[in-house]
Amino acid sequence: MSGTTTDAQHDRTPDRIQDRTPDRGQAPEADRRTRLTVLVALAANLVIAVAKTVGGLVAGSPALLSEAAHSVADSMNEVFLLAALRRSRRPADRRHPFGYGKERFFWSLLAAVGIFVMGGCFSFFQGFEALTRGTEENFGGYVAGMVVLGVALLAEGVSLLRALHQLHGQGAADGLRDPALRTVIAEDGTAVLGVTLALAGMAVHLVTGQVVWEASASLAIGALLVYVAYRLGRDARDHLIGEAADPEASGRIRALLQAQPEIDSVEALLTMKTGIDSTLVAARIDLVPGLDSERVEEVAVRIKGSIARTVPEADQIFLDVTDRPARETQESPAATGERGGA
User: Which residues, other chains included, contact 277 with Cβ-Cβ below 8 Å and sequence gap of 6+?
Assistant: First the structure.
């Protein structure tokens, strides 16, 4: 078969294929639920951040001040996530023909940086400061600080339950694909654990008079925040640099292509996630001999429709038809995405 190229955006593609592309300008129900979850977390963190800051200054508690920094970082991150939810649903345009789905991962990366810098680094600073300079115990202030932490634990727990309820409603697999919801769950879970560590450190410090316990709690909170920031940042990076579709989805697409009677061989199959519910698919295929150009067009339209039905998130589908041997094609730049028939 001579080298003929076709793509999913061809003018002759039937409406039934074009209409299945999601409308990025309208947020689905899942986005509305996620926005509510983020707003709940933001309201809780703003109130808690103020209370922790006042309590930490009154008590002179490094652990409580570390938790205040944690809540401030979380509040800023929720603002980032709200921006991600709004901006990622903008429709594709000439400058961004594949849409703005990756905006979610960009803002999630900023949230991870915020957790690391404002939460983790400040907590380490407070811990080392307490170890080197010590701190004076103020019974009244410490009791007030522990009451603040108790209220914070309750508020963070409510926010976490809200996020987990949404995750359960959407299903773990679908819910965790959304970096906004994943970040809220990570932040709230970390906040609950961090408040528990701060409470324990303050209580033991108050009982024993040894500041090392509270300093250790502050350092532990810092280590926890750095780890969470690393995990969130790594996930965002993988998507931003072009992560392939899930192996299961890629396997279904390859099996579908290989099952087509008109396809002699699948020379290369490339996929890339362009958003939480959108994937680009590019395939280089060798058709059986004897097909004229009209027949090739009909076959391409049918195959793209089958891929769209099999993998609903595949909203950009490109087929490149070639007659070169499989080994030659796989070693060529086209197999690595440097050139192609899209």
Answer: 22, 101, 177, 313
CA angle at residue 325 from 319 to 328, to 5 degrees?
95
| pTM for this prediction | 0.66
For residue 98, which phi and psi values (nearest 5 degrees)?
-100, 15
What whole-number distance in Å separates Cα of residue 178 and Cα of residue 196?
Answer: 27
- CA 173 vs CA 168, 169, 178, 182, 335: distances in Å: 10, 11, 10, 11, 30
DSSP per-residue string spanning 125-158: HHHHHHHHH-----HHHHHHHHHHHHHHHHHHHH
CA distance 44 to 341: 51
- Name the band, by pLDDT with cuts 50, 70 and 90, for residue 243: confident
If one compares 282 and 150, the residue with the highest pLDDT of the two is 282
Closest C-alpha to 252, from 277, 275, 283, 274: 283
Order of all β-strands in the sheet with 314-321: 4-7, 314-321, 278-287, 263-275
Find the length of the chain.
342
Which pair of tokens denotes residue 334?
């086209």
Question: What tokens were used for 167?
Answer: 């995750």
- In terms of pLDDT, which residue wins out, 336 or 309? 309
Q: 287-331, pLDDT tens digit by residue?
A: 888 888 888 888 888 999 999 998 888 888 998 887 554 444 445
CA distance linking residue 119 with residue 191, whole number of Å? 11
For residue 93, how many C-alpha atoms fall within 13 Å in the half-sphere facing its CB?
7
Per the DSSP assignment, residues forming a β-bridge with 281 are 271, 317
pLDDT for 134 equals: 63
Region label for 79, one of left (φ > 0), alpha (ψ between -120 and 50) or beta (otherwise): alpha
Q: How far apart are CA 181 and CA 105, in angstroms?
A: 12
Parallel, antiparallel, or unpaired for β 278-287 and 314-321?
parallel
